[in-house]
């Protein structure tokens, strides 16, 4: 039996894909999964991990709310553990995370392919790996195409719809040469749609937009539907469970000594919809 310690993800759109991927692999191996939802508070995580271990699970999948570096709960040292969407700060257990950098680079390259040369980036204010990785990818996409990277084109706000609205309104109001926006996530992209409408800009005729996360309820609900980058939740769930089962099959009990070489950075594919088109000169 495998335990899944789910840090708030059970109430998010992402959880289903992680759980589905994990459950399919576990079922193929004749194993069941016991789910315990926890929070981001370290004391609560330790308590809930202890509750999970009392269910006599053979190993634990620990899935965090978003990509970050974590301290693995001490009570999990006694069982094989694999992290999903986070990295172990002590490099003791395997982990799987999204490739934030290449995903962002693919988003920018998609805009460049359509002919955009002045591309804004609406980014997050939180100090997390996704913030840094997506900024690196944005810059790499521009740099590889021989385009200059201007700090003035990067606007940081909280990564919610109001933050995207504020960031887009600020950038588009002061720089009318911007023809495309890459947004930190789909919620910020939704705010950017509102800002564009207020400024009389049509998507994608006057402004192209690409998001990140592929939250389908947002991306498919916007008009036009949003081109975005998908986080590999299903693949992370599958990989982590396969790795955990492999650990359970070994009797040497060296599962806690992982050096990172058996961890995985999984690609974030671009999901094309209808929010990107070739730029045209504004009046």
Summarize the structure.
By secondary structure, the protein is of the alpha/beta class.
Give an overview in words.
With 283 residues, this protein is of the alpha/beta class. The chain is 36% helix and 20% strand. The chain contains eight helices and twelve strands. The protein has helices at residues 15-28, 42-53, 100-113, 129-144, 161-174, 186-198, 216-219, 233-248, and strands at 2-7, 33-38, 59-70, 81-88, 95-98, 119-123, 154-156, 180-183, 208-210, 228-229, 264-266, 270-271. The strands form three sheets. A six-stranded parallel sheet has the order 2-1-3-4-5-11, sandwiched between helices. β1 (2-7), α1 and β2 form a beta-alpha-beta unit. α5 crosses α6 (186-198). The longest helix has 16 residues, at 129-144. The chain is elongated, with a radius of gyration of 21 Å. The termini are far apart. Residues 256-260 have low confidence and may be disordered.
What key attributes describe this structure?
283 residues; alpha/beta; six-stranded parallel sheet; 36% helix
Topology:
Blueprint: E1 2-7, H1 15-28, E2 33-38, H2 42-53, E3 59-70, E4 81-88, E5 95-98, H3 100-113, E6 119-123, H4 129-144, E7 154-156, H5 161-174, E8 180-183, H6 186-198, E9 208-210, H7 216-219, E10 228-229, H8 233-248, E11 264-266, E12 270-271
Parallel strand pairs: 1-2, 1-3, 3-4, 4-5, 5-11, 6-7, 6-8, 8-9
Antiparallel strand pairs: 10-12
Helix pairs in contact: 1-8, 3-4, 5-6
């Amino acid at each position: 039996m495998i335990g899944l310690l789910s840090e708030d993800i059970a109430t998010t759109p992402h959880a289903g894909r992680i759980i589905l991927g994990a459950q399919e692999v576990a079922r193929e191996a004749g194993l069941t999964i016991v789910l315990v939802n926890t929070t981001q508070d370290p004391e609560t995580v330790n308590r809930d991990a202890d509750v999970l271990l009392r269910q006599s699970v053979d190993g634990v999948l620990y899935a965090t709310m978003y990509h970050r570096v974590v301290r693995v709960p001490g009570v999990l040292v006694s069982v094989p553990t694999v992290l999903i969407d986070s990295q172990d700060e002590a490099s003791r257990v395997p982990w799987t995370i999204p490739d934030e950098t290449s995903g962002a680079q693919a988003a920018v390259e998609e805009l460049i392919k359509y002919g955009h040369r002045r591309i804004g980036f609406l980014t997050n204010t939180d100090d997390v790996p996704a913030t840094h990785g997506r900024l690196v990818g944005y810059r790499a996409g521009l740099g590889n195409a021989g385009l200059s990277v201007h700090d003035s084109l990067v606007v940081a706000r909280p990564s919610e719809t109001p933050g995207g609205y504020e960031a887009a309104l600020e950038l588009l109001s002061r720089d009318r040469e911007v023809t495309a926006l890459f947004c930190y996530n789909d919620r910020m992209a939704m705010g950017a749609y509102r800002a564009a409408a207020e400024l009389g800009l049509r998507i994608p005729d006057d402004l192209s937009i690409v998001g990140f996360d592929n939250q389908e309820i947002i991306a498919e609900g916007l008009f036009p539907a949003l081109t975005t980058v998908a986080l590999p939740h299903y693949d992370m769930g599958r990989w982590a469970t396969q790795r955990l089962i492999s650990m359970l099959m070994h009797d040497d009990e060296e599962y806690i000594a992982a050096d990172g070489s058996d961890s995985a950075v999984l690609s974030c594919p671009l999901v094309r919809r209808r929010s990107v088109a070739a730029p045209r000169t504004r009046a």
